[in-house]
Amino acid sequence: MKFLKDLFNEQEHKFEKGGALQKWYPLYEAFYSFLFSTKLTTKSKVHVRDSLDTKRYMSIVLLALKPVLAFGIFNAGYQAHKAVGLSLDFIPVMITGAKLVLPLVIVSYGVGLAIEFLSCIIRGHEVNEGFLVTGMLYPLTLPVTIPLWQAAVGIAFGVIVGKEVFGGSGRNFLNPALTARAFVFFTYPAQISGEVWTKLLGTKEQLVDGWSGATALAVAAASDSVATVEQNLLDAGYTVKDMFIGLVPGSIGETSVLFILMGAFILLVTGVGSWRTMLGCLAGAVSMNLVFNFFAGADTIGFLGLGPEWHLTMGGFAFATVFMATDPVSSPALPSSRLFYGFCIGVLGMIIRVANPAYPEGWMLAILLMNVFAPLIDHVVLQKKVKKRLPNVI
Amino acid sequence: MKKIQVNNTYDLNLKGAPSPELSNDVAVSNDYGLNLYRYNLKLRLLVKEGDSVKVGSPIAENKKDEAVKFLSPVSGTVKEIVFGEKRIISKVVIESDSKDSAIEFVKPSTAADLTSLSADDVASTLQSAGLWQGFVSYPFQAIPNSSERPVAIFVSLSNDEVHSVDASLLLKEYEQEFLLGLEVLKRLSAKVSVAKSNRTALPEAVSAVVTHEISGAYPANHPGVFLYHAKESVEENKSWAIDAQQVIRVGALYQTGQYPTQRVIVVAGELAKQPRHIKIKEGASLSFIKDEQIGNDPLRLVAGGLLSGDKLNTDDFLAANDYALNLVREGSEQEMFTFFRPGFDKATYGNTYLSALSNNENSMTTSLNGGERACISCGVCPNVCPVDLYPQVIMKSLYAKDIESAVSYGFLDCVQCGLCTHVCPSKIDMDAMFRESKDNLWKEVNR
Questions:
Q1: pLDDT tens for each residue of B207-255
Q2: Would you tell me which of A44, A361, B31, B250 could form a disulfide with B181, CB atoms 3.0–4.6 Å apart?
Q3: CA-to-CA distance for A41 and A314, rounded, in angstroms?
Q4: Which residues of B229-245 are buried (b: 16+ CB within 10 A; e: fewer)?
Q5: Neighbouring residues of B438: CB distance < 8 A, sequence distance ≥ 6
């Protein structure tokens, strides 16, 4: 690999200030630093620096997403095959799943990275590796049925409005992947309303008998009374165990709680994901759930009566808690405010999911809303902490 | 003895730790000198090239506070005065005549002689004997003004920065000087607190004067951290701190009457042939480092700790407050796909590399280990702040030039331990930023 390093080093002068290609420095730097570790050395009184950099940080998140992506591919194929009665063997299912999911991932990365590079060239910044995570999170929140062009428009909006206009990764206040997802949700409701999220291979006549394709959330929301909601879910083929393992229809990455927990384990052990945010989300969701259960009665909607075992395994709760709410940039900065932030997300997400008929799922909106409140939470917590110090008067 | 537990600390575990014996075997050249640029002060020269000087002759004084003087560590002739950019006095080189004839600042005294001294007597002796700059006045960590008297003095015996002098070794060697020095400090301030680390074993006589025991890794025993955790009132924010070796110098001054020049330092680091403690004279030329280095790799010579020291060259001189010479490899080999590797050999604070599974000593170079990025609020820096700050929040305030908010968040409690900068994955140099802002604020306050 020495020749590659030499090649880069020989070409460097062209990209430096005053060189013929100086405008393209961000592009050059991105590839160079992707391949090789930095040549830069410390200049100040702190002479040695930790080995952790943002590239490593982001690649840990990517690592945590790998099992979720792999299962997402499998499940997309599995659901499509199941709907039309095709073979449920591992290999054909994976091939179908890959055909459905990978184009979305490629579009997300392709469009997003192009915009990322372009804006870095315009601003003269180095390319941020934060997009590598955004570009992976976004397709995992989509249903496989979404047309590719809509996915492309969504990620373009997310990267530009969610991030680049504020100055790139680290300066944004909204989670860019969720901004993209919200854009798609509000712009193309027909494709993403959450009714049928399974890719139909072939015509409607080929569907197996009794297949409806409705997601668990849709079934639960359509139940009229507390007494029937669990039975309705079971009738539609949803058990807590199935939803925990994840072989149910839904967005690509959200269905398997089991695989998301594997990702959570990686994030927590490495300290990359905040355990406070995750714990807060869990506590918020469970306590709101118990409040709903308390008020559930004969004349309320059925959704109110579902227990935590259902709510925590259905829909996007697990994925949102582990991967979306823990985005450090759009979270509050202080550890103790993260607990409160997570709790608010849990409560709000449950309210939107259960009590609001307009939206099938609540986590995206809850997290985006709390992103906006994050600086306020930080401010309040910080003022409290400051009061405990002996002030320096000058 | 009060106990203090300092959380949010971190010990770097690096190769090249010094052996705990004190050796005397360093052959230094005949040229001594002062690196005056390192003090970051406007100085007035008091000598010309060719002047003859004694041990203790004033070489330069602070223009703004003329009582603060910098003295010659040897007797001989002024060989060369080097000026830097903007005519800053960079170095004064003195050729030693090996006679060490010295100026007497004070009659050699014992503890009993000190009882009659007032705070002003002590202050003026320390000022004329060039030991005033051994004090650090908080919160700006500056040399105290010569007219100021301390509310309280905090003495920290142990230095827990990676590769620095072992306090038990030092205090065994200079027990008498230390105890005398401490008596002198008690003349200067009614409240003198002395702390040691729970990891340091001290001679009995010294243990008897210790008032606080600190547990925690670096920088729990930093005098500023000790002050932060031990202070009882707002006034004590303006306390002074002093380290063990400076107390020993004060004691030596009163014991002999002369300017003390002997120092104990460590020569350490991965590139040091024989990492060890040495006795050496202040102002010694660092050219001897060439014989201490393994191989011919590019070397960074750091005077002081790896997280707070100054980069020097082998033609520089040892200053009166240097406690270590660290030899660390400059730059690094460029590896492919570092961020995909398991990283068994990567020194790291957290658990993002598999090196977290072992306790082996690591090797570190001066590589930045990553590109500079915007803060991603990863939240690691508050975990290593010994004075309970949120460095990332303060950094953002200072970035927006909002110094008032930064001060209200406790920015002036920062002791410049360098840990937040060390662990930052975005490689933001908060340490340099904080130093600069403090300097500017100090200049405003002391105009």
A1: 999 999 999 998 999 999 999 999 988 889 999 999 999 999 999 999 9
A2: B250
A3: 49
A4: bbbeeeebbbbbbbbbb
A5: B140, B141, B411, B412, B414
Q: Does B375 touch chain A (CB under 8 A)?
A: yes
Q: Cβ of A171 and B233 within 8 Å?
A: no
Report residue B131 CA to chain centroid gap.
14
CB contact under 8 A, A126 and B350: no
Residue B298 at interface with chain A, using a CB cutoff of 8 Å: no
Which residues 14-43 of B are in CB contact (within 8 Å) with A? 14
Contact B369 A53 (CB under 8 A): yes
User: Is any Cβ of chain A less than 8 angstroms from the Cβ of B404?
Assistant: no
pLDDT exceeds cutoff 90 at A226: no
CB A228 within 8 A of CB A242: no
Where do the H-state alpha helices sit in B80-218? 111-114, 119-128, 167-173, 175-188, 204-207
Of residues A365 and A194, the one with the higher pLDDT is: A365
B348 touches chain A (CB under 8 A): yes
Q: Is residue A192 over pLDDT 80?
A: no
Q: Is the confidence at residue A123, as pLDDT, over 80?
A: yes
Find all residues with CB under 8 Å of B261, minimum gap 6, and list them. B55, B73, B74, B281, B282, B283
Is there a contact between A359 and A315 (Cβ–Cβ < 8 Å)?
A: no
Average pLDDT (A352-359) is: 84
User: pLDDT tens digit string along B19-58?
Assistant: 998 888 788 888 999 999 998 888 999 999 999 999 999 9
Q: What share of chain A is helix, strand, coil (3-state, %, to 5)?
A: 65, 0, 35
What percent of chain B has a predicted confidence (pLDDT) above 70?
A: 100
Q: A309 with A334: CB under 8 angstroms?
A: no
- Strand, helix or coil for residue A265: helix
* Min distance A231 CA to chain B CA atoms (Å): 44
Spatial distance between the Cα atoms of A216 and A230, rounded to a whole number of angstroms: 10
- Closest CB to A392 among B139, B334, B427: B139
Residue B297 touches chain A, beta carbons under 8 Å: no
Cβ burial, residue B146 (10 Å; 0-12/13-18/19+): middle
Residue B14 · residue B347 · CB < 8 Å: yes
Three-class SS state of A203: coil
Cis peptide before B219 (omega within 30 of 0): yes
pLDDT score, position A195: 59
What pLDDT is stored for residue B325 in this prediction?
Answer: 94
Q: Is the pLDDT of residue A194 over 60?
A: no
Q: Smallest Cα–Cα separation from B397: which of B446, B433, B349?
A: B433
Distance from CA of A302 to the nearest CA of B (A): 41
Q: Any idea how long chain B is? A: 447
The encoded tokens of residue A286 equal 């469970």
pLDDT at A126: 81
Contacts of B170 (CB under 8 A, 6+ apart): B244, B245, B248, B264
Number of H helices, E strands in chain B: 12, 19
Residues of A in contact with B392 (CB under 8 A): 333
Contact B77, B52 (CB under 8 A): yes
Provide ipTM, 2 decimals: 0.91
Express each pLDDT in A51-91 by its tens digit: 999 999 999 999 999 999 999 999 999 998 988 888 888 99
- Chain B nearest CA to A250, separation (Å): 31
CB contact under 8 A, A56 and B332: no
The rounded distance, in Å, linking the Cα atoms of A72 and B69 is 72
Q: What is the mean pLDDT of chain A?
A: 88
Q: How confident is the model at residue A203 (pLDDT cuts 50, 70, 90)?
A: low
Confidence (pLDDT) at A298: 79
**Do residues B364 and B16 make contact, with C-beta atoms less than 8 angstroms apart?**
no
CA–CA min distance B95, chain A (Å): 30
